[in-house]
Design goal:
One of its GO terms (molecular function) is GTP binding. InterPro entries: PEP_carboxykin_GTP_CS, PEP_carboxykinase_C, PEP_carboxykinase_GTP, PEP_carboxykinase_GTP_C, PEP_carboxykinase_GTP_N, PEP_carboxykinase_N. Its cofactor is Mn(2+). This protein has 3 domains: 222 residues, Phosphoenolpyruvate Carboxykinase, domain 1; 276 residues, Phosphoenolpyruvate Carboxykinase, domain 3 (Alpha-Beta Complex); 79 residues, Beta Complex (Phosphoenolpyruvate Carboxykinase, domain 2). The chain has 16 helices and 30 strands. Strands 11, 12, 13, 14, 15, 16, 24, 25 and 28 form a 9-stranded mixed beta sheet that branches. The chain has 610 residues and is of the alpha+beta class. Helix content is 28%, strand content 21%. α11 crosses α16 and α15 packs antiparallel against α16. It is globular. Bound molecules: guanosine-5'-diphosphate, 2-phosphoglycolic acid and manganese (II) ion. Guanosine-5'-diphosphate binds next to α9 and β17.
């Protein structure tokens, strides 16, 4: 294979930055299918970022923000129809339907390939096809997890540079026969000669497709983050979860936090919450409990494997943060604000101020006049939101002021506690410790959350979301739960992380949150650490070990004590009402439901009835 055989390649043979035969063959095949005007290998350099961001400004996709307020930063407003992950259009195309399981959309790989090949045919006409090499996790890993995204979107190239270790350095790791994940993306909006482009090209027909056996991703029709930045949810969760199942490790939807006690003892904590349920905020927490400090390792994804010492070590595969903007402010999350303000940030679907800065709901200093995310004039009297509820900032992790020094260590960090959590206005207490690993797996398996704006669907309806992975599982959920149980069986339980279930979102009768959340969650983290050390009490309840208010450090907390009691309450009737919902979910999981989960369910019912 030579470069000359790649139609549209920008340069001559010796400008092709790789000799990887499989990569070159794939690039050629995709170029022949999609017929771009040009093919460009992305190198990840500053110059390339400059060139592409200027091009995006000219195309009207990017607005350059006020250099003094948001240095070297841009705002993109998407097509109003392309604002979130599209779970109904997301497919796991395993050879056998049962391997995709009851929680995923499935289609036979051959059938999907033929449908998508027709969509891809000529879909890059009039555009540039970028070949974007990237690495998930540290480049210094013994076996770096490589990928190449082919895309026709400059927005994607620029965002991938923030979110992954992208460009020449990743390509250099790809020696000639190194395996890599093939990730193909097109916005699905070819341009006829003379046709003017729109600021946010996309297609009404969308497919976000995964072929877990061949470790491939095919995405068509959307430019939105989780649908288009294929290193994130598609690779690091859906494909990686299938790899992890085959190879005996865990790819999880978890933040990684480093907590430092007043005695300078370090604890690493991983936490799985569904999208828009507080991962980024907890990852950047400013503890309000005196003497406690926190540092950030990751805000969305953790890859965990056993170290030689029998402990579970976590690595964050990502390189940037793709955070929910609304709700982020100097009081709720100053760390995110500082990371963003350091510059080099791409905002999507937030509002624009008259002086070229950005604004979103709950940010301080609400202006009297704005341009909203739809490009319309907006004032505080307007009856709609200025920023889309799923509007995002995309910003480099390296700018995070609380970044832990060990963030790029290929070894990862040993995890002491795993937290599961969701958004439940009732029933689920502020914090609840599992009796053991299998019980913790049951907690994760049956966790539930109210739907958010991070994906299409009815906001507020409760759904079961095992380990916050329901939209991100690359295989059968029953096999996945068995995998979690096996991880525990094959380990020395005393070295395994302790498992906790948290709920920051319980509400009182008047709908207000019972717990102040954010930095005050450090009071819960402190109790968790004390449970690990065995230095604090808890009540043994039918659902697990739950603290009373006196077990928590509430010094200086400005909250009605009744609210704290209500946040911690385990109400038997509420849990009895939860049982049929859990039953329904376990039935839905079907034949592959592990016996261990069924046993835990029976034990829970017995405890509730005794
Ligand atoms: P992620 O998508 O899981 O990373 O979630 P984020 O951390 O971005 O948070 C999503 C939304 O939940 C934002 O609007 C936050 O302000 C809000 N949020 C995060 N943590 C808390 C908390 O402890 N309490 C409350 N009430 N809201 C929170
Ligand atoms: P998150 O996911 O909400 O978990 O940060 C990003 C996404 O929706 O693509
Ligand atoms: Mn997040």
């Amino acid at each position: 294979m030579t470069a000359a055989t790649i139609p549209g390649l920008n340069g001559t043979d010796d400008t092709v930055p790789t000799k990887h035969a499989e990569l070159l063959a794939w690039v050629q095949e995709v170029a022949e299918l999609t017929q771009p005007d040009r093919v460009v290998f992305a190198d990840g350099s500053d110059a390339e970022f400059e060139r592409l961001s200027n091009q995006l400004v000219e195309a009207g996709t990017f607005m350059r923000l006020n250099e003094e307020k948001k240095p070297h930063s841009f705002l993109a407003q998407s097509d109003p129809s392309d604002v979130a992950r599209v779970e109904s259009r997301t497919f796991i195309c395993s050879e056998r339907e049962e391997d995709a399981g009851p929680t995923n959309n499935w289609m036979a790989p051959d059938k999907m390939r033929s449908i998508m090949n027709e969509l891809y045919r000529g879909c890059m006409r009039g555009r540039t096809m970028y070949v974007v090499p990237f690495c998930m996790g540290p480049l210094g890993a013994e076996q770096p997890k490589l990928g190449v995204e082919i895309t026709d979107s400059e927005y994607v190239v620029v965002s991938m540079r923030v979110m992954t270790r992208m460009g020449q350095a990743a390509l250099d790791k790809m020696s000639t026969d190194m395996p890599f994940v093939k990730a193909l993306h097109s916005v699905g909006a070819p341009l006829e000669p003379g046709q003017k482009d729109v600021p946010w090209p996309c297609n009404d027909t969308k497919y976000i497709t995964h072929f877990p056996e061949t470790r491939e991703i095919w995405s068509f029709g959307s430019g939105y983050g989780g649908n288009a930045l294929l290193g994130k949810k598609c690779y690091s969760l859906r494909i990686a979860s299938a790899m992890a199942h085959d190879e005996g490790w865990l790819a999880e939807h978890m933040l990684i936090l480093k907590l430092i006690s007043p005695e300078d003892k370090v604890y690493y904590i991983a936490a799985a919450f569904p999208s828009a349920c507080g991962k980024t905020n907890l990852a950047m927490i400013h503890p309000t409990v005196p003497g406690w400090r926190a540092e950030t390792l990751g805000d969305d994804i953790a890859w965990m494997r056993f170290g030689e010492d029998g402990r579970l070590y976590a690595v964050n595969p990502e390189f940037g943060f793709f955070g929910v903007a609304p709700g982020t402010n100097w009081s709720s999350n100053p760390t995110a604000m500082k990371t963003i303000e350091a510059g080099n940030t791409v905002f999507t679907n937030v509002a624009l101020t008259d002086d070229g800065d950005v604004w979103w709901e709950d940010l301080e200093n609400q202006p009297d006049h704005l341009t909203d995310w739809l490009g319309q004039p907006w004032t505080p009297d307007s009856d709609r939101k200025a920023a889309h509820p799923n509007s995002r900032y995309c910003t480099p992790m390296s700018q995070c002021p609380t970044l832990a020094p060990e963030w790029d260590d290929p070894q990862g960090v040993p995890i002491s506690a795993i937290l599961f959590g969701g958004r439940r206005k009732s029933t689920v207490p502020l914090v609840n410790q599992a009796f053991n690993w299998q019980h913790g797996t049951f907690m994760g398996a049956t966790m539930s959350s109210e739907q958010t704006a991070a994906a299409e669907g009815k906001v507020g309806s409760v759904r079961r979301d095992p380990m916050a992975m329901i939209p991100f599982l690359g295989y059968n959920v029953g096999d996945y739960l068995q995998h979690w149980i096996d991880v525990g069986k094959n380990a020395d339980e005393s070295k395994l992380p302790k498992i906790f279930y948290v709920n920051w979102f319980r509400r009182g009768d008047d709908k207000r949150f019972l717990w102040p959340g954010f930095g005050e969650n450090s009071r819960v983290l402190k109790w968790i650490v004390e449970r690990i050390e065995g230095t604090v009490d808890a009540q043994s309840t039918p659902i697990g070990y739950v603290p009373t208010a006196s077990d928590l450090d509430l010094e200086g907390l400005d909250v009605d004590p009744n609210d704290v009691d209500e946040a911690l309450a385990v109400n038997k009737e509420d849990w009895q009402a939860e049982i049929p919902l859990i039953e329904e979910w376990l039935q839905f999981v079907g034949d592959k439901l592990p016996t261990g989960i069924r046993d835990e369910f029976e034990a829970l019912k017995n405890r509730l009835n005794s």
